[in-house]
Amino acid sequence: MSDRKRQLQNEIAAARGEVLGLVSHLSPEQFDQSTADAGWSVKDALAHLSSIEARLRSMWQHAIEGQAWPAHDSSVDAYNDRCVAERRSWTPEAIVAELEQSGRETERFLDRLAPEDLDRQWDHPTRGSVTIEALVGIVPRHLRAHGEELQTALRA
Questions:
Q1: Strand partners, 131
Q2: Which residues fall within 8 angstroms of residue 124, CB to CB, at 6 or more apart?
Q3: Domain count, the chain
Q4: What rounded mean pLDDT belongs to the chain?
Q5: 135 closest CA partner among 1, 12, 28, 36
Q6: How far apart are CA 147 and CA 124, in angstroms?
Q7: CATH number for the domain including 43?
Q8: CA distance to 11, 12, 32, per residue, from 26 (Å)
Q9: pLDDT tier at 1 (50, 70, 90 boundaries)?
Q10: CA distance 106 to 111
Q11: What pLDDT sits at residue 81?
Q12: Which domain holds residue 125?
């Protein structure tokens, strides 16, 4: 396995572990705590994290196959709103389980990538030309950014 791929996998696992560790012992009231994301609770932010990687994995697959992202699916905000709304009736435990499952699916996806796949260029709908490595690198940064928001909300 390439060092770059293993490094990405390790970064993702560490970032996911940080978020999971943060929420592992929260009370129901803490899951209801508001975050800096307007209208989102801690539970909603977790719902976002548990659902967004499926979209990212779909982008990675499009990139590997040399396919353009579907024009009708370009709004990440609409996707996020829909996924969070769908999970509002879920228990926090179910959302955490989905986040863990999503991590396993991301790990399996990355295991299947050839080292040279990381260098493939793809035309992202909002970021322009990016490599698959750059797309994968979004995951740990995203987990950590929302993890910091969760920490701030929980300290309030």
A1: 121
A2: 59, 69, 130, 135
A3: 1
A4: 93
A5: 12
A6: 25
A7: 1.20.120.450
A8: 24, 22, 10
A9: low
A10: 9
A11: 92
A12: 3-155
